[in-house]
């Protein structure tokens, strides 16, 4: 009988709290303070305003101005709408346009067919953790940090007709930057020198993310290193391959600094980006005509950017 009060007391003890549910966990989360909300808002709003003001609004304005004959001097209210006339003039009565397109395509082919495989090959070598790989990686990536304008000045020391290293070694007198028959090839070598390091770093990052078990399984099956790379590793790096394709196309379109430093994109070095600059900020100051050229570049870039985004989003859904 003496134990009865104890039993009743035990029964009076409330049961342990039930396991916290998601709702309970959510209620227990600390509410954001006003400072936190202000910081988060600024972190979202400031980049959004910058991208809108510096990218999207100028892009929309460029497309709209491409249908006008504005010269950048008269008031906006006097702008005359000419529709597709600027595009027709670009294609039919603007002589530098065709050479510029050809040079841009040549630029793309040189970067994609020559520089990109070299960068991929160097990435494969550096992925093997060879002795001094850190030094080689830094040395090969260093040109990427430099601007194309600075690269143009550096290669001027090599290509100079009178005091250049190349003519000094081989005893020639070729004007590598001045001769329209060879200057595009000389510039492509300089641009490829920079592009190799960029591609090398992208593929090196992709190789580090490949599951080692895939290579081990291929080695067990008797596959050689070359066969393993092209049949196993390379397909796995499909997102990297798409990024490399998009980057190469954009680099070929935005190529500007190098040719502008040499001769302002003339005399065999015509590029679409240089033509845009010549018409927008040059002596002609044909804002509408230059905007049409810029819109053509934008349209081509959007095609490959759309392919990239579609590939990335499809990979995320898997």
Account of the 3D structure:
- The protein is mainly α and 318 residues long.
- 72% of the residues lie in helices and 0% in strands.
- The chain contains 15 helices and no strands.
- Helix 3 (34-65) crosses helix 15 and helix 7 (148-159) packs across helix 9.
- The longest helix is centred in the first third of the chain and has 32 residues, at 34-65.
Distance between the amino and carboxyl termini: 68 Å
- Gyration radius (Cα, Å) is 30 Å
Helix percent band: over 70%
Overall, the morphology is globular
Structural class: mainly alpha
* DSSP strand count: 0
Oligomerization status of the protein chains:
single chain
Query: Major sheet: size, sense and barrel closure?
Result: none
- Given as residue ranges, the uncertain stretches (5+ residues, pLDDT < 50) are 1-13, 17-21, 24-29
Mean pLDDT: 82
The total count of helices amounts to 15
* SSE pattern, N- to C-terminal: HHHHHHHHHHHHHHH
How much of the sequence lies in strands comes to under 5%
Spell out the key features of this protein.
318 residues, mainly alpha, 15 helices, globular, disordered N terminus
Topology (elements, then pairings):
Layout: H1 4-12, H2 22-28, H3 34-65, H4 85-92, H5 97-127, H6 133-145, H7 148-159, H8 165-170, H9 183-208, H10 212-220, H11 225-236, H12 238-254, H13 257-263, H14 272-280, H15 287-317
């Amino acid at each position: 009988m003496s134990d009865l009060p104890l039993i009743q007391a035990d029964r009076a003890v409330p049961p342990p709290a039930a396991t916290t549910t998601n709702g309970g966990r959510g209620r227990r989360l600390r509410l954001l303070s006003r400072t936190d909300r202000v910081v988060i808002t600024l972190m979202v709003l400031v980049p959004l305003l910058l991208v809108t003001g510096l990218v999207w609004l100028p892009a929309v304005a460029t497309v709209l101005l491409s249908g006008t004959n504005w010269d950048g001097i008269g008031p906006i209210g006097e702008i005359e709408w000419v529709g597709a006339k600027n595009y027709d003039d670009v294609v039919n009565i603007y002589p530098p346009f065709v050479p510029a397109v050809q040079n841009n395509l040549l630029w793309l082919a040189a970067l994609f067919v020559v520089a990109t495989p070299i960068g991929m090959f160097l990435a494969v070598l550096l992925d093997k953790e060879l002795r001094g790989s850190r030094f080689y990686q830094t040395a090969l990536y260093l040109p990427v940090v430099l601007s194309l304008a600075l690269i143009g000045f550096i290669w001027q020391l090599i290509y100079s007709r009178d005091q250049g290293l190349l003519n000094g070694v081989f005893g020639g007198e070729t004007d590598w930057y001045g001769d329209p028959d060879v200057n595009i090839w000389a510039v492509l070598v300089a641009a490829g020198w920079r592009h190799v390091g960029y591609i090398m770093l992208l593929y090196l990052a992709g190789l580090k993310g490949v599951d080692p078990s895939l290579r081990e399984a291929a080695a067990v099956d008797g596959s050689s290193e070359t066969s393993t790379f092209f049949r196993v590793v390379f397909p796995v790096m499909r997102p990297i391959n798409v990024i490399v394709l998009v980057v190469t196309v954009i680099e070929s379109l935005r190529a500007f600094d190098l040719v502008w430093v040499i001769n302002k994109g003339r005399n065999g070095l015509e590029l679409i980006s240089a033509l845009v600059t010549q018409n927008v900020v040059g002596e002609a100051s044909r804002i509408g005509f230059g905007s049409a050229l810029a819109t053509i570049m934008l349209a081509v870039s959007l095609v490959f950017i759309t392919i990239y985004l579609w590939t990335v989003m499809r990979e995320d859904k898997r």
